[in-house]
Amino acid sequence: MNQAAIIHRPTSDYIYPSSRNTLELQLITARGDADEAELWYWMRYETDPAKIRRQRLHVSLQDALHDYYRTTVCTGQIAAYTRYCFHLRAGTDELWLGANGLQETGTPGVPRRRGKISWAATLRESRRGLIISSLSA
Q1: I need a labelling partner for 75 at 20 to 30 A (CA). Which of 52, 54, 100, 133 fits?
Q2: What strand order describes the sheet that includes 22-30?
Q3: Cα angle at 60 between 59 and 63, to 5 degrees?
């Protein structure tokens, strides 16, 4: 996968609220580079991995160099409190894109249970910057 061509920034060009509880998101990749793009999202203070939602992104536009993936997310709560990351697949390759950039393994910032670590420990980790992204009100 051409990692240099993967583009998403937490700015109004790539993510914006269309209503109080609806977000519009865009991700750009090299043309034909990704077989599948998926958005993982959850509420800011969520600590239960079972409440992570997934939504597939669809190519809405193509030009000579890029595929433009878009999706609309209805959160049910105030959209500004939503955190998210992207999961890209191309054959056997997988990439995760979050606020800290691209990663080839794991699910960056996604709340999860790890051994005997408590949910409170997971929240402390998120306050140190491991949570992927959020919108400011």
Answers
A1: 100
A2: 15-19, 22-30, 66-74, 58-62
A3: 85
Residues 104 and 66 sit within 8 Å (Cβ to Cβ)? no
Please write the tens of the pLDDT for every residue from 75-119: 888 888 888 999 999 989 899 998 788 888 766 566 554 443 333
Distance between start and end Cα atoms, the chain: 34
Task: Give the residue among 116, 102, 96 at the shortest CA–CA distance from 40.
Answer: 96
**Cα→Cα distances 93→35, 78, 90, 126, Å:** 10, 34, 5, 27
The amino acid present at 5, given as its one-letter code, is A
Mean pLDDT, rounded, for 67-76 = 93
Note every long-range contact of 75-79, with CB atoms under 8 Å and residues 24 or more positions apart, other chains counting. 75/21, 75/22, 75/23, 75/41, 75/43, 76/21, 77/21, 77/43, 78/20, 78/21, 78/137, 79/17, 79/19, 79/20, 79/21, 79/22, 79/23, 79/135
